Amino acid sequence: MSAKRTLRSGTVRDSPPPPPKRQAVQRANVTTNQEYKYDGVPISLKSKKINSCFIDFLDVGLGVDMPNHTILRILFEHLQQQNSPYAPAGTRGLLFDIQPVGNVDDNLIDAELRINTITYQGPHIRALHTLQLPVRGNKTARDFFRVIDDTNLLPVGYTSTSEDLLGCRDFISQLVYRLDEAGAIRLPANTIVSVWNSFNQRYYGDGTSRIDAVGKIAFNDDYVHISIPGIDYA
Q1: What is the average pLDDT across 172-177?
Q2: Domain count of the fold of the chain
Q3: pTM, entire model
Q4: Is 29 within a domain?
Q5: Is residue 166 one of the residues assigned to a domain?
Q6: Strands (E), the chain
């Protein structure tokens, strides 16, 4: 029986039928690593517990004397067992990768922080040098995102020279500093000097390195840049 409603005139009419229920759109499961913009990372990935964190200095594969590219890598406490709409089976963590976007304008180019899921495969396998950073207990990926939000690390832009885009080492070192400051990771006092000094190097595939001062990224006006003791800035 349809519901009735009484108009102000006293006329009784059948109420209109309710609108049809909207069907939830089911995303298909994915089978390959996924890349997300920083503000588009699914909650299911942010809620993962983290047991380790790494800085990776990557071979960009563009020539012997090209600069490294620096990323932050966090690993989940538990491997993802099945394919989901947001990450494939075998996903073991996330990469924080600052990438240039757009065109160079007045020696600046916009940059976006991209978040990539990783299995045992991923850009980190091209690392020429890797540092492991201890993670404090009961931390989730959300704690790492919260530090970025609370300290206004974004937005940023790369500074450009005739040869290189400068700034990934500056961005990642600032992120590491803020993560330690917020208690997401713990930089042991006996290794902190070597951690910061690692940013002053350009690494090569033969295991050697040379001094290479850190070029600054263009942070927004709301971010307070820390001149980290031990890092040599260009």
Answers
A1: 98
A2: 1
A3: 0.86
A4: no
A5: yes
A6: 4-6, 12-14, 35-37, 50-58, 69-76, 93-100, 108-118, 127-133, 156-160, 165-166, 201-203, 209-211, 218-219
